[in-house]
Amino acid sequence: MTRVVVTGMGTVNALGNDLTQTIANMQQGRCGLTAITKFDAQATGISVAGEVKDFDVTKRVAKKLSKRLDLFTQYALYSAIEAAEQAKLADAVAPERLAVIYGSGIGGLTTIEEQVTKKNAKGPKRISPLFVPMAIINMAAGVLAEHFHAQGQSYAVVTACASATSAIGQAMAYIQSGRADVVITGGAEASVNEIGIGGFAALTALSDATDPTQASLPFAQSRSGFVMGEGAGTLIIESEAHAQARGAQILGYVAGFGATSDAYHMTAPDPSGTQPARAMRQAIASAHLTPEAIGYVNAHGTATVANDLMESKAIAQVFGEHNVLVSSTKGMTGHLLGAAGAVEAIMTLAALNLEMLPQNVSAAPDPACPVQLVDNNHTVPKTPFALSNSFGFGGHNAVLVLGGAHAYG
């Protein structure tokens, strides 16, 4: 089987506006959550979010172009440029052999909110002619393809909060099929706005805590819901042979992928955890590994009561007596919805290469969630492989097996 490697990574999220800042803050266990400043959130009953701070898209994107892009696409392009620079992607692959497979759970929600507000105030004739192209979910993939002149397949993946992980898995398979040498993949989301926060608050899915350090508490007994995050994560992945032939630095491996459906409920996970467990087993098997070869799980870990209980059961089903270490980086970044899996994959790969594990930024663990949470007292496992879990509304389950830069020697 063709090995698929990561040669570039870029991100913008609540921990930092680039890869270096994000990883430095992850290493220090910092919480990127703050009081909401983007709008007056008082009426929503929600106080805390994982906002991207001091974002200036024009540092990497022409101002004229940026005005034609919704914020989620700005995040996507901004992070992709960083990833491409790290991968030294320019002129490294024929356009026909370069593809884009990119995820988002909601897409241009900022544009939708702005244009509906304008329509309500001034009538439908005042809707921007750019409304549709700015709002549609596939535009992040389309803009990346145009910017990087990718003439292979370009499409969007939409599996709610599993979107980015699903996209990376599809990108891995696309390379292994021989239809591309390099794929730009990941996910982007920009839902920290009144309609995004208000909508999830109406579902009673969000934490209403007012202290940012006590708002996102994955696997904690006192958890009360997730904290909305925003941003993007982009990975440049390619066949190992292609990367070696061009002398690219290998940052890690996308070693396996699994995906299943709960077929249970629109928003609630199946409490048995059966299908997420099956997705984990699929991913491990596709990487030609055993559960014992996995040293760490970057959990979906949203800090909702239902998800964390279900995911704990699923992890126990897969790993049994092998006490794999678990944490959720959503305690630092918030939940980036369709972008979550990409940012978490980047953080997991960085952790493997740094031989450290992201701490579970949380309070006292829930005894009903029987997982071994990462804390200061744990020794870093010697195995170079980890899982990254993502589960989405609609019952979508997606899991990656990731390997560090030296996973195969």
Describe the model.
The longest helix is centred in the first third of the chain and has 17 residues, at 71-87. The protein has two domains: 4-245, Thiolase/Chalcone synthase (Peroxisomal Thiolase, Chain A, domain 1, 3-Layer(aba) Sandwich); 256-404, Thiolase/Chalcone synthase (Peroxisomal Thiolase, Chain A, domain 1, 3-Layer(aba) Sandwich). It has 13 helices and 13 strands. Strand 9, helix 11 (305-319) and strand 10 (325-327) form a beta-alpha-beta unit. The radius of gyration is 20 Å and the shape is globular. Helix 3 runs parallel beside helix 6 and helix 10 packs across helix 11. The strands form two sheets. It has an eleven-stranded mixed β-sheet, sandwiched between helices. Strands 2-3 form a two-stranded antiparallel sheet. The model has no long low-confidence stretch (mean pLDDT 97). It is an alpha/beta fold and 409 residues long. The protein has helices at 19-27, 63-66, 71-87, 109-122, 131-135, 139-148, 163-176, 194-202, 240-245, 274-286, 305-319, 330-333, 340-354, and strands at 4-12, 34-35, 48-49, 98-103, 154-157, 182-189, 231-239, 252-261, 294-298, 325-327, 372-373, 385-392, 396-404.
Sequence of secondary-structure elements: EHEEHHEHHHEHEHEHEHEHEHHEEE
User: Could you tell me how far the N terminus lies from the C terminus, measured between alpha carbons in angstroms?
Assistant: 17 Å
Strand content: 15-25%
Largest sheet: 11 strands, mixed
Total number of helices: 13
Please give the share of residues in helix. Answer: 25-40%
Which structural category do the helix and sheet elements fall into? alpha/beta
Oligomeric nature of the chains = single chain
EC number: 2.3.1.179
Protein name: 3-oxoacyl-[acyl-carrier-protein] synthase 2
Catalytic activity: (9Z)-hexadecenoyl-[ACP] + malonyl-[ACP] + H(+) = 3-oxo-(11Z)-octadecenoyl-[ACP] + holo-[ACP] + CO2; a fatty acyl-[ACP] + malonyl-[ACP] + H(+) = a 3-oxoacyl-[ACP] + holo-[ACP] + CO2
Keywords: Acyltransferase, Fatty acid biosynthesis, Fatty acid metabolism, Lipid biosynthesis, Lipid metabolism, Transferase
